[in-house]
Structure formats: C-alpha cells, structure tokens
Amino acid sequence: MSVAATVLGAPVERREGRLKVTGGARYAAEYRLPGRVHAWPVPAAVARGRVTAVDTAAALALPGVLTVLTCENAPRMAEPEDAALAVLQDPRVPHRGWFVALAVAESPEAARAAAEAVEVTYAQEEHDVTLRVDHPGAYEPETANGGFPGRREHGHPESAFAASAVRVDVGYSVPPLHNHPMEPHSSTAHWGHGRLTVYASSQGGTAMRDTLAQMFELPEERITVVSEHVGGGFGSKGTARPDTVLAVLAAKATGRPVTVALPRRFLPAAVGHRAPTLHRIRLGADVDGRLTSLTHVATTWTSRIKEFVEQAAVPGRVMYAVPQSLTTHRVVPLDVPSPSWMRAPGEAPGMYALESALDELAGALGMDPVELRVRNEPDREPDSGRPFSSRHLVECLREGARRFGWAHRDPRPRSRAEGPLLIGTGVASATYPVYVQPSAARARALPDGTFVVAINATDIGTGARTVLAQVAADALGVPLELVRTEVGDSDLPPASLAGGSSGTASWGWAVHEACRRLAERLADHAGPPPGAGLSARADTAGQADAGSAFSRHAFGAHFAEVAVDTVTGEVRVRRMLGVFAAGRILNARTARSQFVGGMTMGLGMALTEGSTMDPVFGDFVECDLASYHVPVHADVPDVEAYWVEETDTRLNPMGSKGIGEIGIVGSAAAVGNAVHHATGVRFRELPLTPDKVLGGLAG
C-alpha cells in the first residue's frame, strides 16, 4: 500500500503532546523577555455610566508599581472596527466589567495590589440587562452573525400551521454561556526597533496582526503576532480581545515588555459569551408525520456598543423538508457585555430548540423520533433549493440507532425504573455548515531529504500541526516523519483563523496545493535539492472563497441515556453516542477527540452550564469555575463517537468537512429528550439542574 493511501486518516499522535504534558510548551504569558513587567486591569463597578475621577495615588505609592493607565493618560489609538477593543480611550462605561484602568508593576502580585488600590468615581446611569420576549427595544436585524439573513419566509407558515392535523407550539430558553478555555486570555507585548511583537493566546494571529496594524497605525510588516501554543478558545479568542490591546498600550507607555493575563473571573464580561436565546417554535404536520409548517423565532440580546446576533433560527432552514416556513431573529440592545462566538454559534442553541420541538411532535404523533426525522429528509436544502454536496443524516441516524440499541427502547415515557432512578433515552440530529477561507502556505524540500511546511495556522489544541503534516505527506507522497510543520507566527504565510470548523479545510487546501507544486518542481529537478532547498508557495484566494452551487454541511446523530434521581433531582448521563458524516476524516485519533469534546460540552450545556445576569448589579453571577460548572470525567462515563464513510469532491482537495463544532450541536437536545422519556415531564429551560427537575417532578 502506498504512503499516500495510508497517511491520511491514520490515528497519528499529536506532535506537540509531549511538550504540553511535560511543561515544555510556552503559552502567551510565559515569554520571559528581558525587563518584562506585568499589568492588571481594573473593571468598572457600575453597569452603566461614566468615569468622573480616578485616584491612583495609593496605587502608585506601592513598591514596584510603574504606572496606572486610565483614559486620561493611556496612549491614543485609532478607532477600532470592534468597539469592544476601545479600552482606556474615553470615560464611558457601557457595562459592568468594562476596563477603566490598568496597573503596571514589576510583578503580577504588585500589579494586582495596585489595581485593587485604584479608586474610581462614577456618574452612574440607569441600566437594563433583562432579556424578555416582549421587550420594547426588540427589533428584527437585517442580518445575524455570519451574514445570514435575519429573516427568511417561504409560503404561508401561519395558515399552514392552523390547517395542520398535528401541531406543536412551544418555547425554550437557553441562558448565557461562557467559553472558559483552560488557558485564560493572555498577551505579552513588546515594542522595539520600530516593531511590535505580541505573544498572544489567539485563534488567529493573522487577523490579530491586521487589527493591531489598524488600531496602532503601523504597517503590517512591522508587527509580529506569535501564537505558538493556545490552551483552548472555543470562539472567545477568534479575534483580538482587550487583554492584547491593554498589553500593547502598557508596553508603549512604559517602554518595557508587558504581560496581561486576565483573571478567570474577568473573562465573562471581557472576552465575549454566548448570548441567551428565547425560542418559540411552531411545528405543523400531517397525520403521517410529514412537516407542513415550521416557525422558529429566536430572541436574543446584544450590547449597546456593537451588534452581535446569535443566528439561532438558521438551522431550521437546512434540516427538514417543510414547504411553509418562517425563521427569524429578534435582538434587544442592553447594558450587557458584548456577546461573541462560542462553539457552534447559532447551531448549538438553535438545534437544541428545534430538536426538542421535533421530539415533542413525535410524541404528539405517536411516532418514533428517529423515523420522524427520516420521514422529513429533504432532497435539497429547503431554504435555497440548492442540492447538497453530500448529506448522510439518515445513515447517521440508522447507524446510531443500531449501535445504541434503539430498537429495544420502550417508547412510553416513565416506562423504566431502577428503584428511585428513572431511566430514559433520547435522540437528536446535528448539522454544521462547511466553511473554507483563503490561506497561504509554503513548502520546502531540504537537501537532507526532509520537508518543511509553513503556514500561520493556529493549533488551539486540535492537533493542527499533526494533521497538516499528514496532508503534506499525502500530497508529496513521502513518509510522515519526513515532514515538519511551522505554525503560529504571523511572519509565516497568512492563514485564516481557527474558527467555524474551517481551520483544517482552509489551511489544508493551501498546504496541499503548495506541496503539489513542490512535488512538480522536484520531479523536474535532478538530484537532491540545492543548499537552500527547493520551495513552492500557494495562496487559495479566489478558490477557497469562491461561491458554490451546492449546500455544504456536515451532519450527525446523537443518542443519550440518562438516569434521573427522583429523590435528589440529579440527572446523570450514563452513555452518549454520536455518529457523524463529516467528509473524509483526516486523523482518526484527533477527530474522535474533537467529536467527544463537543459532545461533552453539549452535556454541560444540558445539565450544568448556565449563567445568570443580576438585574440589580448588571453582572454575571457565575463568573468562575467554582460557580459556572463544566462537566468533568465523572459526568461522562461512556461517550462514543463514530462516523460514516463519506466521499465529497465538492469541498477541498482533501474532501474534508469541519469537525470541531458539530459534536456540540444537538447533544444537549438528545440529553433533554432522554430526560423527558425518563420522567414524562418536558423541561424547556436549560440547564436541567436538580432544582428544576425536582420542581417538574413535583408538579
């Protein structure tokens, strides 16, 4: 068997794994540059208003303190495109937690002490942080996040719903959710010799470089952003965040390298979050279970300084064959921190609501939930009418049902008990769009017979270094051990950010093309490469971003079994199973890890994760991992992920689809549907904590 036939898809271990577990991998806050100092921000203590005075005397009197930056003395910047980055430029306070000062000192401890000693006086204004469906400030946006139209309507869904033989009209609620990566947002900045160097915990060094160039009015070639190792992001590090801007400002003001590492409790207000969503879904069907009408109205919030609309109604435009539909968004500007991307924005909360409602429809019809989904399988995308490049959702549902033992399920709610435990099973579908962005890569053949592939991709813990080496080895037709990858430096060929499950598809395309061109050069060259080696470069602009005549999506099916304790109200997930159709799987080991990670995150969304906005103080109550509960190993004893073989030639040279986000899509609904099957009670507000479950059981 040839090298090319075996290298892609192989379960290769991550190349940086040993460095990470032995402490050899350096993260953004760990670059100990000569003369480096530390900075600690001061968050606003009011929910809305203006800073009228800042007393820094006590802070500056502390040992080791260099300066305290405020809007009065901080270096000036050009107005950023992202208003959340305009820190220390004016006295406004758009929300609680907005940074109003920055203490800089010789050590992190001194900087923290100085920040706590800063006295800030405010002119406080009335605030509103409460989302409700009937809020008078709600409006229908022209577009939602990702450029999706805010509203899409086909036919006459109202009249079709009224005429439907079976109807479901329900509401669901998803609270604010927080990314909470293992590595908090951190940056180290240094100005020297007319250059700005930033070591950043970022999902996209090229995008960050471009942002800093605009804000600090520097040519891009005089800025280097290094993101060699990143300890997770889940969307919150997709673009520049305030920690980077503060580090650059402090370095410019002091003339010394500065590290800003945000405390975890500052993250919810400073780096984005998944906005809460209120869903109303109306489904109509005939007696045979074929959908006749679908309406999904998603209401969410945004901050007053920029519009970000969670595109939660969009999945209804893709999933099922329904002739009459309305999918629309409503957004309310409030005095809250700016929401942003979180793993599978839109799809994660939207599919929770849609797949829960579909389960309710199956109950009203007396139909198996798997069969209901199969019966409404479309042959084209319902919204656009475009053919799917590939769609194997039915195969995922059938294979998942077989592996899970679905055929042995008693469909009656509350039909299985083990003492005080009620046992139930649930299913939900999953989808995520295929995104591909332009990127550039360079491949070089060295005289010693090895190869180096360079691209400013970011490895956020997904194994990008390893998979890109596999793509390169496949294109070159050489053993994997001969290929080395260089990533995480903006001086390398520019690449798109690691987001939207687009990283490997985008970077891999550029790497494949560069290696293909290099292989052609080598074929025409006699003997070993010269001293500097032979190289080739590729840029996929104009190809990767070209439009497609096809609707391109990954699909999947989730199955879950739960045990609900009728005494304590605790829900335990005994097993989860996911089966996915995501194009060609490039590395079986890293792919399974991504699927399982997403499924586990969906379990957290279903059972433990949720944030509360305090209406009086205008702040997130659950602001650290002591109060915002993410699932741990004991919460997920049995999680399995599989995939069906899928060949799709309409994607990229590798035939791959993104896998980082589809694992979370639908998994919360599968758990919620299992809880309903166990208890006979439909819970429509996440997370399903013991207090809610006990209240529902008692009712």
Write up what this structure looks like.
The longest helix has 21 residues. By secondary structure, the chain is α+β, with helices and mostly antiparallel strands. α14 packs across α15.
Care to count the β-strands? Answer: 26
Helix content: 10-25%
CA-atom Rg in angstroms: 26 Å
Morphology: globular
Strand content: 15-25%
Look at the structure and give the mean pLDDT: 97
Strands of the largest sheet, in order across it?
Answer: 3-5-1-12-9-10-11
What's the helix count? 16
Biggest sheet descriptor:
7 strands, mixed
Low-confidence stretches: none
Task: Give the structural class.
Answer: alpha+beta
Q: What's the N-to-C terminus distance? A: 63 Å
Give the SSE map.
Blueprint (H helix, E strand, L loop, with lengths): L2 H5 L9 H6 L14 E7 L5 E7 L1 H4 L4 E5 L22 E2 L5 E7 L2 H10 L1 E6 L26 E4 L2 H6 L3 E9 L11 E7 L2 E6 L4 H12 L6 E4 L15 H13 L3 E4 L5 H4 L6 E9 L5 E13 L20 E11 L12 H19 L3 H7 L17 H12 L12 E2 L2 E13 L6 E6 L5 E4 L9 H13 L6 E4 L16 H21 L10 E6 L13 E13 L5 E11 L6 H20 L5 E2 L4 E2 L18 E5 L23 H13 L10 H9 L1
Task: Summarize this structure briefly.
The protein is an alpha+beta fold and 699 residues long. α9 runs parallel beside α15, α12 (464-476) runs parallel beside α13 and α14 (588-607) packs across α15.
